[in-house]
Amino acid sequence: MAQQEEIVLWLDRRWKKAIERHLKDETLQEHLENVLDELCNRLPAHEYERISRAIQAEAAAQRAEEEAARTYAAYHVVENGQEWYFKTTPGEELLDVCKKLRSYITTDESAAPDLFIKMFAGAQPITAEEYDALTVLRMQNTGKNRGVFDLDFDKREFSAVHIVDGWWTWAMRDVSVAAYHATRSSFAPVKEQWSKLLDHLSGKEITSAGHLSARNFSFGEEIIESDGKLNFYVQADFDVDAAFGTFVCTDQNDDWLNIYANYDMEQDCLCDTLELNLCRGDGTEENWNYLLNAAEKEVLLRKMEAFCQQQIGISLHEYAQQLRDEQGAAPEQTM
Question: pTM surpassing 0.90?
Fold first, then answer.
């Protein structure tokens, strides 16, 4: 903490008023502060620099301490065709945001704000990149981020990041009903409110584009090495139509979807996209990529790591290194 000392001066009010009448565009206090600044500037240069550096270091240390103790929640909100990214501090948890949502959609229009973001008086705008960074912190369970939320009022979907499963997504009406049951008794302790909220939301999760979770990532077949990548075949045993905009979960056609996740052996990291291969009943195919967001990448990498340990008995990093070593040791083919 800065070593500050208070200096108190006593002056008859009449002297003060008389002096300030002769000062130009400043109060007596402002004038005395300028005098002190001038006295500091007259100190020997080495002494002035030493004290200045000490004060700046103490201020920086205090700011770092305050930032380390500060917690956040991060939001992405879509409403009426507009979108916002913002954060709050100390940040809300799932129960708090569910309550806010219910209040917003059930309060009489004349009393409620016209946009959900106006429910957060101290919201600080952030970029999409900052939102992703806060999402990673949430997934890493550092305690720095109390929650990451994505509310799409145009689609009526409510999504939140869980530290183990990644995204949880529900219909907003289900969240509102769950919040009602959780808070129906104003005397219920917070722990009981949490329990009721999760009980009423359990089993109501939906698949949503941009919000793939651990339950969407299971693998079939073996890990294939191809073109410098480890290729994982993702089983399409969930609502892929909701996730990728296809039309294969139906009896009206014979289409099916192949989904592949890749690990770059050279870069030693998960690839940013899923490869999608739509095979139609008429024999035609369509290929495109699905860009993974921060939460999806984190939970997918965990699932790939666990599958590699199960299938090969070593980590992804070790397996990629082993294959690189084998390829480097292979003798060159002669004509």
Answer: no
